[in-house]
Specification:
binds glycylglycylglycine; single chain; 12 strands; globular; 42% helix; ten-stranded mixed sheet
Length: 326
């Protein structure tokens, strides 16, 4: 069976790490047809729109999408693409790997980030000069859906610790609802869980990440806490993600376009290749996904490493080493 995969590299290092993931997928005995789409800052400059309708349609119609990185036009590119695939959950695993110099080597976290609302609902306005507002949307339905997904994910993937992150002591109405709904979901399932104020949680994740497993978060908190966790394990070059919908899904590294290193050929392809492994899982090729994860882990352990991990290897050499191990 052939699977159609939409490939949208986006901006900056997305143009460098996306081909690396394609090389890995092409080395596997799985039949993919890649359909390519453009989006991002350059597309805006050239065509007057950051996300052309045909690119959005590619993502809607493909069996799954691989996305690289968003730059200045993130709000016009990645948010509508997540919506195009009907994604309600952004799954962001952050784990330490043997052989790398992690700040916290016992880190094994998965952020289950609500992916449709919160302050990323895009409702902002300038009321008058110097006065702006952003409307934070939290609904019972979306909170229930992300909590159910988070508790189910923890059970299916063997995580005993589930934490609901919130700031209900300040955002009493919005996070009050998120917390109430997520707690009821945990109670209905008879699950063990903790709740944590997200600011204190940020500190505790740095001090003792080994006490946490799955963290269910509102949208912005999930975006920020997962970047914080990247700092614990060796950087953003290591964190993959899946934007999961009911039928469709989009896979992207947690990192952005990294304009400081874009164009130099030294971006770490690991996060993008690990995102491709999540795509394989999603399409039912779990064994192939495991092979890719093992190959990435071996290369992270033995090298070569890109500069973000203290090495001097280019993206191409790391990719070749991963493909060789496959
Ligand atoms: N590949 C992830 C990416 O492009 N990140 C840039 C960014 O601004 N992301 C916001 C988000 O993940 O919601």
């Amino acid at each position: 069976m052939t699977h159609e995969i939409a490939v949208i590299p986006g901006d900056g290092i997305g143009q460098e790490v996306t081909p690396a993931a394609l090389e890995v997928l092409e080395a596997l005995p799985v039949d993919f047809e890649f359909v390519h789409g453009e989006a991002g800052d350059e597309t805006l400059a050239e065509r007057g729109e950051a996300l052309p309708a045909e690119t959005r349609e590619l993502a809607e119609e493909a069996d799954a999408t691989l996305f690289g990185a968003a730059g200045e036009t993130a709000a016009d590119v990645i948010l509508p693409l997540r919506s195009a695939v009907g994604s309600f959950a952004n799954v962001r695993p952050a784990r330490a790997y043997p052989g790398l110099d992690a700040v916290q080597p016992d880190t094994d976290l998965v952020f289950i980030r609500e992916n449709t609302e919160g302050v990323y609902a895009g409702i902002e306005s300038e009321i008058t000069e110097g006065v702006t507002t952003c409307t934070r949307v939290i609904t019972e339905d979306a909170s229930r859906e992300i909590a159910e997904y988070g508790f189910r994910y923890a059970k299916q993937n063997g995580y005993d610790d589930v934490t609901i992150a919130h700031k209900a002591n300040v955002m009493r109405t919005t996070d009050g609802l998120f917390l109430d709904v997520a707690e009821s979901v945990g109670d209905e399932r008879g699950a063990d869980y903790d709740t944590a104020l997200m600011d204190a949680l940020a500190m505790h994740l740095i001090q003792r990440p080994e006490e946490y497993g799955v963290v269910i978060c509102p949208n912005l908190a999930g975006d920020m806490l997962s970047d914080l966790a990247a700092g614990l394990v060796g950087g953003l070059g290591l964190l993959p993600s899946a934007n999961v919908g009911h039928e469709n899904a989009l896979f992207e590294p947690v990192h952005g376009s990294a304009p400081d290193i874009a164009g130099q050929g030294v971006a770490n392809p690991s996060a993008m290749i690990l995102s491709a492994a999540m795509l394989l899982d999603h399409l039912g090729y779990v064994e192939a996904g495991d092979r890719v994860r093992t190959a990435v882990e071996d290369v992270l352990d033995e090298g070569p490493h890109t500069p973000d991990l203290g090495g001097d290897a280019p993206t191409e050499d790391v990719t070749d080493a991963i493909v060789d191990r496959l």
